Amino acid sequence: MHSRLQHLQSFQMVLPALSCSGGKLPNRLFYLSIPPNIFVDVVRCASLRASSASGWTRVIVEKPFGRDSESSGELTRSLKKYLKEDQIFRIDHYLGKELVENLSVLRFSNLVFEPLWSRNYIRNVQLIFSEDFGTEGRGGYFDNYGIIRDIMQNHLLQILALFAMETPVSLDAEDIRNEKVKVLRSMRPLQLEDVIVGQYKGHSKGGQSYPAYTDDPTVPKGSITPTFAAAALFINNARWDGVPFLMKAGKALHTRRAEIRVQFRHVPGNLYKRNFGTDLDKATNELVLRVQPDEAIYLKINNKVPGLGMRLDRSDLNLLYRARYPREIPDAYERLLLDAIEGERRLFIRSDELDAAWALFTPLLKELEEKKIIPELYPYGSRGPVGAHYLAAKHNVRWGDLSGEEL
């Protein structure tokens, strides 16, 4: 904590018009939460006119990092005319979430989990993001990007890479980012038949009316921009071959949540399968990391209900953060800003990592736009389009967040 305070004392947030540094070593951090079309102009001015002569100069770049491989590559090349790679901090606030930070700790420091982390024991992995509100006046920005670019290509894909990576050589930023890049480069190209897109429509419930996406005055009439998407992704390596990684992200759904759900394989020759009937999914062990809200880690296990009979029940071994750790959990941006001040790059995105992420999604995005794929409509406040269930069933998966057995 003392070293962080020292960094904070030497840190100056500056604007193009700089004040005198007062004789102290001037370290300068620029945070670009601005429209992407002026990124390069601001960086050029900051680099040429406002760089620290004796301390460090760093730039935090807020997403979006382009719209596809081409625009992202051009942005990176333009930024590198004025900055070195180690000066660029591409921020994805989901990597600063407490449960995402804890993901590698859970896996690499607990012997009970590491041997299970492969195709031998894991049947599927689900990365779920849902919001219970629509665009609400932000349609101008959102319509230009859509849910795939806004959530899946960055937030969920970054979590997937952290989840699936091999054990890094060390906790050094470059060692961790090297392993994430390997995962992204091992992924099978996304196919249109493995993707479902949706858009929320108007809905009345309990005497209250909810607007459709296209009712937002900032959204172009007749827009076919997806507000919901579900996709099945696969990693072609020895650890994960054949395991479906299902992503789901949407606006105007029935609940607000972000979580990782790991569904394990059925027990071979299960002695108690008669107690579960023909639906063995009811007996599936599931590990859930709830990123937000109400951060928690819980493991669904099978348990005998006390009594004279042999009745089995699914129970939760749970770590609810607000109960175990009553102190306030730091905000993701707070953590990442402090990391940027300290020069810790572990939770920031490297340029080759960004290239690999866009290479995975760009062909799909172009196909959706060129073929003008019409999204399936779903009511505001519902569980999303029916097509998402068919997509999961195609890969022998059930969405875990729809079971109704939640903490």
What does this structure look like?
The chain has 407 residues and is α/β, with parallel strands linked by helices. The chain is built from 11 helices and 15 strands. The strands form 3 sheets. Strands 14-13-12-11-5-10-9-6-15 form a 9-stranded mixed beta sheet, sandwiched between helices. Strands 1-2-3-4 form a 4-stranded parallel beta sheet, with helices on both faces. The longest helix is centred in the middle third of the chain and has 26 residues. The N terminus is likely disordered. This is Glucose-6-phosphate 1-dehydrogenase. GO terms for molecular function: glucose-6-phosphate dehydrogenase activity; NADP binding. Belongs to the glucose-6-phosphate dehydrogenase family.
Tell me the series of helices and strands, N- to C-terminal. HEEHEHEHEHHEEEEEEHEEEHHHEH
**Main structural class:** alpha/beta
CATH class of the domain at 94-332 and 373-402: Alpha Beta
CATH architecture descriptor of the domain at 94-332 and 373-402: 2-Layer Sandwich
**Which regions contain 5 or more consecutive residues with pLDDT less than 50?**
1-20
Mean pLDDT: 85
Radius of gyration, in angstroms, nearest whole number: 23 Å
The coarse overall form would be: globular
Number of helices: 11
- Strand content range: 15-25%
CATH fold type of the domain at 94-332 and 373-402? Dihydrodipicolinate Reductase, domain 2
Find the CATH superfamily of the domain at 94-332 and 373-402: Dihydrodipicolinate Reductase, domain 2
Q: Strand order of the main beta sheet, please?
A: 14-13-12-11-5-10-9-6-15
Number of strands: 15
